Amino acid sequence: MSQQTWMLYAVMVFFMSATPGPNMLLALNHGIRHGFRSTLMTCFGLMTGLFLIMLGSVAGLGAILAASQVAFSIVKYAGALYLVYIGFRTWRASPRVARPSATGPARGNRLDLFRTGVLVSLSNPKAFIFFMALFPQFMNKQAPQLPQLLILMITFMVIETFWQFVYAGGGARLSRWLTSERRMRVVNRLSGGFFMGAGVALGASRL
């Protein structure tokens, strides 16, 4: 992989990751509700899920999902239902603005944030196929494959982490404006509606 190819890949991923999606919206929503420091656990969960997706793609899971309609449908609808569930919970959430404690979140809460991040990240089976289709476009077939895959994976995760921190930090700053239950309720409804809409769109997709 040449430096020019890597730069093209990095620029493409930079703008692609900046586009709001379930992962970024979760980081934003948790930043609003739990503060930036607590949302780091959410981001860690999101990146863990992303790393598992990449490993699954490299190991051939993407090919299995692409070849087996049954396997793909099971994973797709399970992910769609989870997004709808997250959206419903967010929609129904108390409009009170969470105030992070000085000592940080409790252990149980940290684990819950981490688990939610992992599950939301894994909720879209298309990601497995996406990485299987994306990586080869930037790889040199004549060069060793593993070092190139590692570079592509690490680059993607670094850029994705950067944007998750931006969204989480933006949410934490936005929480200062959300000083009324009415404003917080609007944010909950918008976020919940987006998650449920993403779940429905994912379930209805023919791909």
Mean pLDDT metric: 75
Provide the number of structural domains: 1
The biggest sheet, with number of strands, parallel, antiparallel or mixed sense and barrel status, is: none
Radius of gyration: 18 Å
Overall number of strands: 0
Order of helices and strands: HHHHHHHHH
- Strand percentage: under 5%
Brief digest:
The chain has 207 residues and is mainly α. The protein has helices at residues 3-18, 22-34, 36-59, 61-67, 69-92, 107-121, 126-134, 145-174, 181-204.
Provide a descriptive summary of the structure in words.
The protein has helices at residues 3-18, 22-34, 36-59, 61-67, 69-92, 107-121, 126-134, 145-174, 181-204. With 207 residues, the protein is mainly α. The protein has one domain (28-204). Helix 3 runs antiparallel to helix 8 (145-174). The relative contact order is 0.23.
Write the topology of this structure.
Elements (H helix, E strand, L loop, with lengths): L2 H16 L3 H13 L1 H24 L1 H7 L1 H24 L14 H15 L4 H9 L10 H30 L6 H24 L3
Which key phrases capture this entry?
single chain; 207 residues; mainly alpha; 9 helices; 0% strand; globular
